[in-house]
Design a protein that fits this description.
By secondary structure, this protein is α/β, with parallel strands linked by helices. It contains eleven helices and 15 strands. It is globular and about 70 Å long.
Amino acid sequence: MRVIALKLENYRNLNNDIILPCDGVNVICGDNAQGKTNLIEALWLFCGGHSFRPGKDSEVICWNKKNARLEMRFFGQEREQTAKLCFFSGKKTVEINGVEKKSAAALIEKFCAVVFSPEHLNLIKRGPGERRRFIDSAICREKLKNAVLLSKYNRLLSQRNSLLKNISKNPSIRETLPVWDEQLIKIGAALTRKRLEYIEILTKSAEKYHSGISNSREKLEIRYISTAGITADDDIYKAEKKLGDELKKRNDEDIRTGITNAGPHRDDIEILINAKSARSFASQGQQRSAVLSLKLAEASVLKERMGEEPVVLLDDVLSELDSSRRDYLLNELTGCQVFITCCEDSGSEQLKSGKIFNVRNGEISDVSALGSGHGD
């Protein structure tokens, strides 16, 4: 999958323009607050209409304009295709191959990318919720039925928690708890197994990428920590039994606290570098490398499941990385189209083959094409 051309009109601070990237690595240079991340965001929006940054859709419209438009020509599913996103105050519209769609979600089945931004460092820096969201987002993008499974679990969990809060006021309703638990156990065990299956595939790719990024100096490990003790070796029946036993054991605690204290909503993913916790012991550069490895592994899994390479979008990745790690990202990610932003020219100087763009005050300049595979 690759972007052939991107047309921008009234999009944030970027000048109206048409960008023609190469099929390989595209480096986007410029000082802070010039519009580099806006360009990465514009590409990502074609993955489903939602930004990786907080804010309203209307905020993408240039401050003195009434609407904004993005158009993209891309190659995917063995043919050239087009997509268009239009943003108005309070709404947006989407067209795919000239046909208007009801929702921007229709883009998910057409264009696929993986994005890294500095906010993704929270996968390591913050609590378990960030890591659960990363895994759940990945498995939901992979299959729609996984999104349905997660939605069902969250709904059942909310209903069970509501019941737990009411038991203290009306103890007689405690006898209805096993009915809710039966449903929660079935859905929760299935969700945990989906996560474990994904982690197992993700880990293999992440270890390979991290070895490359660190020049084989570090070993990355990813472990799923289940509050019910469910492991990758457990079949669905054993997973259900373990979760059921843990819920039963914690019934009194759940009633006292008014929340469900075990289940996939309490699970975590542990990230280790050289057998030590990345959160506690890794440097800024090591943490950045670990998250990058996870995102590149996510792209690898998507390729395996979808049959084609997703576009890789890397925002502000080169800072805090040493020369060998930068070299790997710029010159060793072959077979896929990559967009990398950087604040300093030193990153682009290491690029051996690809295309360099400069962004200044919203104006995007095509600086140079190096080696083979540059765009027309």
